[in-house]
What we know:
Layout lengths: L6 H15 L5 E3 L4 H10 L4 E3 L14 H9 L5 H18 L8 H19 L6
Helix pairs in contact: 1-2
Amino acid sequence: MQSRRSTQAANRFFRKLLKVLQYIPRVIVTDKLKSYAAAKRDILPGVEHRQSRYLNNRAEVSHQPTRRRERQMQRFKSARHAQRFLSTHSRIHNHIQLRRHHVTATEYRAARDAAFRTWRDVTGVARAV
């Protein structure tokens, strides 16, 4: 998560990416932010740049986990606070968030009640009325 998405930040991002990859890619897929195109022109002039939301680009597709986590981060003071909460939350998320289409409504309610009861016992939080 970047605090700014300027050309300078994009340059830094591409340099880090190239250092990790240790080779020059044939194609780069990014979202439609203009600073990515500007940084790519400077650092990777011979590489093809695709900016389509349908090319397996997780940042552009709204239902992907990354975007879901970003949406959750909007109410936090900083990215560090959000990351601290979400890293813990992701470990228990699957126990609370059931796959609704796999169970009946009665089983779903019972499982949710049990999960929240366990959560209240572990955290020591009193039940809201």
